[in-house]
Amino acid sequence: MVENEPEGEVYTLGMLERLREDLRLFGNAKSELYCRIDTLLRELANPNLHEINLATAFRIELWDRYGRDHLRMVIAATSSISVAHAAFDAAVRQYGGERLTLRKGAMVLRSHEP
C-alpha cells in the first residue's frame, strides 16, 4: 500500500459526506430556481396587464350567450385603437358564434352578434 493513499473506509466515508453536501446544495439551488420560474410564470398569467390602465384601455369582451348582461371574459386589452380593431377582428374569427364588444370604458365602439 502507498503511504500517501488515504485509508479505504475513512476515504469512502469522506466522499459520501461530500456527495451528500453537494446533493443538498443542488437541492437548494433547484428549489430556488423552481421558485424563480414559478414567480415569472405567475407574473405572465396575471390578468392585471402591465402598463395598461384598464379603466381607459380598449377592451375586447366576450359576453354571456343567454343572459346577455354577464361578461364572461376580457379577450384583449390595449392602449392602441389600431391594435384593438385588429384584436376585435381576430376575436370575431375565433369566436364567431359568441357576442363580442370592443369598448373603451362604457362606450361600445364595435359589437358582434352571432
Explain what you see.
- With 114 residues, this protein is an alpha+beta fold.
- It has 2 domains: 1-46; 58-112, no CATH class.
- The protein is 46% helix and 23% strand.
- It has helices spanning 8-45, 81-94, and strands at 58-63, 71-78, 99-104, 107-112.
- Strand 3 and strand 4 (107-112) form a beta hairpin.
- The radius of gyration is 29 Å and the shape is rod-shaped.
- The termini are far apart.
- The model has no long low-confidence stretch (mean pLDDT 82).
How much beta, percentage-wise? 15-25%
Percent range for helical residues? 40-55%
Distance between the termini: 89 Å
Q: Main sheet?
A: 4 strands, antiparallel
**Unreliable sequence segments:** none
Number of helices: 2
Number of domains: 2
Radius of gyration: 29 Å
Question: Structural class of the helix and strand makeup?
Answer: alpha+beta
Mean pLDDT over the residues? 82
Number of strands: 4
- Reading the helices and strands in chain order gives HEEHEE
- Main sheet: which strands, in order across? 2-1-3-4
Shape: rod-shaped
